[in-house]
Amino acid sequence: MKHLLEINNLDVKFDTDEGRITAIENVSLSLDQGKVLGIVGESGSGKSVTAKSIMQLNPGNTIYNDNAEIIIDEENVLKYHSKNDLKKIRGGKVSMIFQEPMASFAPAIKIGHQMVEQLLLHKSLNKKEAKSISIDMLNRVGIADAEKRFNQYAFELSGGMRQRAMIAMALSTMPKLLLADEPTTALDVTIQAQVINLIKDIIKEYNMGVIFITHDLGVIAQVADDVAVMYLGSIVEKGPVNEILKNPKHPYTKGLLNALPDINNLDAPLRPIPGNIPSPLDRPSGCVFRTRCPNPTHECKEGHIEMGLLEVSPGHWVDQCCINCG
Amino acid sequence: MKKNILSINNLSVSFDYQENFLSKKQKIKAVNNINLNIKKGSFFGLVGESGSGKTTLGRAILGANKISSGNVIYHDDRKDYNLADITKKEMKEYRKKAQLIFQDPYAALSPRMTVRDIIAEPLEVMGITSSRDETDQRVRDIASKCRLNLEHLRRFPHAFSGGQRQRISIARALVSQPNFIVADESVAALDVSIQADILNLLKQLQDQLDLTYLFISHDLSVVAHVCDIVAVMYLGHIVEMAPSRELFSNPRHSYTKALLSSIPSIDPEKKSRAIELQGEIPSAMNPPSGCVFRTRCPNPCNSCKEGSVEMGLIEVSPGHWVDQCCVNCN
After folding, report:
1. Going by fewer Cβ within 10 Å, which terminus of chain B is more open, N or C?
2. Nearest to A215 among B192, B267, B271 (CB)
3. How close, in Å, is residue A265 to chain B by CA atoms?
């Protein structure tokens, strides 16, 4: 079966004044239609850069490696350079929902106008049709008085409503792939619950693939089918959500779960992962997690071990170094 | 029985609001008729959505917002400070006893000051220490208690990660040796691992320095873990208050129940759908009459729906207070 999205051996580096920074190293993942892939990790782990690479939204100083592939519909989007080609993915085949809905709408342009504009860009519609699709979409995501909201500005909507409008806008072009970058982080829990349920319903209805980026493992448990755990630009563990959360193998995944306050187990102490995430400017050689690993093997400590994922049970991949560390 | 460190009686805080210069001035009640006591040595949690008045209440307790009616009394060993009616001199003394830890450790620290100067500033402003040596001593003392590397005191904040910065903010808040700390969303901007570290540090400092916290947060799992008593706020009112285990195992108010069910479970097999509350928190400019929660209540009683029920907490079991209206709704 063909995957909807396939990322192979992706390295992303940024050229900065302080030197060349490795943001992503050797990331490979795949996503099928109708599935949700969760990406978790701390800030600086490369979650957003991965998503932005798919849309090619990374800044001008970005360097991709030559053998990297990001394949959507059998085409490598990293080979796209012309504006017309990029238009096919940005907002066409792929849509993105950002974390801060206030920052992602233009403040001085009516919401309706922004929705219509992108529809006209991607679909052969006239203005009237685009308007009716937009209003229909706003209704779909549960915005009351959609016609009135259509003519309002982003600041006139509350946070939850803005995020719904953002989702409506992302979905109105019927993308095959939706990238949701921390879509519920800025929202209150009750609104977060509404938005999560909305996203789940929509995925089912339109059968699209979703990459859901978050640092909240609870949200991941509720929406994702598969999870990839990222640390300092590398995937250290990936697999079905049940496997990863109930039977984690990598010490970093275990550490994240131990640090999480669990409302069902109030007696469990909160155990932070010792140390800090290293600066990407001095990325550890060998296994990137070795500086914080609670129990590294001798070879790993010296930085002699290459990173690479091994399949420990069907579909469950763990970095080869850390299987031995325990 | 421990003594109260803070008693709040019928506290209301309102702000003037004018749509434009021609329209009439309106009052917005951000905090409405709050009664609560905080016992010395407790870790008091305050939860609620944005717009519920948590921060305003915290600021009123610190004397940073004007109190419109009611009073806040801080009980010191020797003296009581009534914040509704406080002199400038008393306010200066009070500032040494009650301090605030902010949410965003990136915005809270001046980028142009060294860590040592940031931590020392309260001592100098309040005139607590008389010599530079004494200041240095106090700074080093609190910095090591907050697990900061003393070598780092000469550096500037940009050299530090989020967790280290938050430890600097905590050191700054604690350097004047306060007894009472308001921590306003102090872990909200941090990654889980760092959050766990800071929460452990706050707990540890509480034991070491005999502190009382008012811990404001929107994250119920964090509050459940660290607080011993929790109040739930909605639209300026406290709707439920109880010891934290009691509250989380036996919530009585429909708002608390909805909040608890909205926490996404870490267990992928428990894909329960949250009790979805309809709509969003109403505007404080135009709050519902009677019970403020009635517009979103999943199961309101008839008299509540009409807005004829007055709000007010009643004690349903020892120490567990619930708004009287919503005891009947369920």
Report:
1. N
2. B192
3. 9
Query: Is the minimum CB–CB distance between A247 and chain B shorter than 8 Å?
Result: no
Residue B330 has pLDDT above 60, yes or no: no
Domain assignments of chain A as residue spans, ordered by start = 5-93+175-325
Q: For chain B, which residues make up each domain, given as ranges?
A: 4-227, 252-330
Q: How far is A140 from chain B (nearest CA, A)?
A: 15
With an 8 Å Cβ cutoff, is B58 touching chain A? no
Task: Compare CB distances from A263 to B197, B224, B280 and report the shortest one's residue.
Answer: B224
Write down the pLDDT at residue A144.
81
Shortest CA distance from B244: residue in chain A: A266
Q: Exposed, middle or buried, A67 (CB in 10 Å: 0-12/13-18/19+)?
A: exposed
B267/A259 Cβ within 8 A:
no
- pLDDT of residue B94 exceeding 60, the answer is yes
Are A189 and B263 inside 8 Å of each other by CB?
A: yes
Instruction: Report whether CATH 2.60.40.1730 matches the domain A5-93+175-325.
Output: no
Residue B12, pLDDT > 60, answer yes
Distance from A66 to chain B by nearest Cα, in Å? Answer: 33
Closest by Cα among B60, B52, B47, B43 to B5: B43
Give per-residue pLDDT as tens, B203-228: 999 999 999 999 999 888 899 999 99
Q: Are B223 and B230 in contact (CB under 8 A)?
A: yes
Nearest CA-CA distance, residue A81 and chain B, Å: 36
pLDDT band at A24 (very low <50, low <70, confident <90, very high): very high
Cβ–Cβ of A221/B265 closer than 8 Å? Answer: yes
pLDDT tens-digit readout, A245-279? 999 999 999 999 999 888 888 888 889 988 888 88
Q: Which residue of B has its CA nearest to A45?
A: B191
Architecture of domain B4-227: 3-Layer(aba) Sandwich (3.40)
Three-state SS across chain A?
CCCCEEEEEEEEEEEECCEEEEEEEEEEEEECCCCEEEEECCCCCCHHHHHHHHHCCCCCCEEECCCCEEEECCEEHHHCCCHHHHHHHECCCEEEECCCHHHHCCCCCCHHHHHHHHHHHHCCCCHHHHHHHHHHHHHHCCCCCHHHHHCCCHHHCCHHHHHHHHHHHHHCCCCCEEEEECCCCCCCHHHHHHHHHHHHHHHHHHCCEEEEECCCHHHHHHHCCEEEEEECCEEEEEEEHHHHHHCCCCHHHHHHHHHCCCCCCCCCCCCCCCCCCCCHHHCCCCCCCCCCCCCCCHHHHCCCCCCCEEEEECCEEEEHHHHHHC
Following DSSP, what letter does each residue of B189-200 receive, concatenated? TS-HHHHHHHHH
* ipTM of the prediction: 0.82
